[in-house]
Amino acid sequence: MYTRNIRNPRASPIENGMPLTGTWKRAFSHVDLSDIRRPYSLPLPRWVRNIRVKEWESISVQNENFYLVAILGNFKLFQTIQIFLYDKEKEKSYHYKKFVLGNNWHLPKSLYNSAVECRSSKFFFRIHLWLIADTIKLDIDIKKTKHLPALTVHLAFNMGSRDLTPMAVSLNFTKQRNMYAFKALSTVRGDIVLGEEHTNFKKSRCIGIFCDYKGFFPYRMKGVYCSGMGFDDKGKRFGFHIAENQANKSNNSNENALWLDGSLTPLPPVKITMPGGPSSDWVIQDTDGMVDLIFTPKIINWYDINFFIFGGDLFAPMGYYNGMLASSGTEQIQVRNLWGIGEKLYLRV
Question: Which of 225, 226, 247, 307 could form a disulfide with 343 if both were Cys (CB 3.0 to 4.6 A apart)?
């Protein structure tokens, strides 16, 4: 059975100008990757190093009626917000998006009491990171357009409950260039108003995954991310967030995680293949017998940009997971038609 050392909390993933690798129990107090000494061979000034750090935050939430995914990305030359919403009862999907040139939004270096927002007359998006008060809040207010209904969202993650086990990791691309990720699954409560329809999210049946990323990702960045959440046959809450990226692969340090009934199981490295292409089944497997999943896309979400010096695309279908996951307690979870999302990301920036 795969195991990984989970370390006690520390202030930063950087020590004496050197990036650390490993897995920790809680979010770092402060993450500023420009503190790394000479991440590139040339002695670049701090502001240039900061421009090379790509960062984003994502929130996934679902109950019996809706599945919501909100992504805020700061890639320094441009920023983007992507909101994917699926109404399960009506089988209708909605895609709200915002694109801004330049470096106008600054993602916080601490998750303990900070916020990031995008505000205009018709589009408001805000994530309040407030771990010191045991919560993370998402607020969205988007006016009606020709093709989309108005959307208002107020959701709060319960980050202080006894059954919450977050995970912070730091991985290396090279000796001096790394990436950081914080992930947590928790209960969520709040409200969504889509058009004229109001839905209350009760924490007893609502689950959410929050992710925070920062990294000296390569100029040509590639990654595949798979996540889902729900309840097992015994009514226990569970969820997973799995990635295959360009970081140095290591059994001792990767970003794959499974949460079952409040307990964290670090998962081994996985291979994600798409034999029939990204619109067909995705196969997610490891070599330790802990991950054996098939993701079947149902709703295709796709977004691309293309400028002279930068570009990229995000292919993010929603669909169903089937297969098996194993926790560190050797408990097998039979995954049957679990609603989730897959993300195939390529960036040139």
Answer: 225
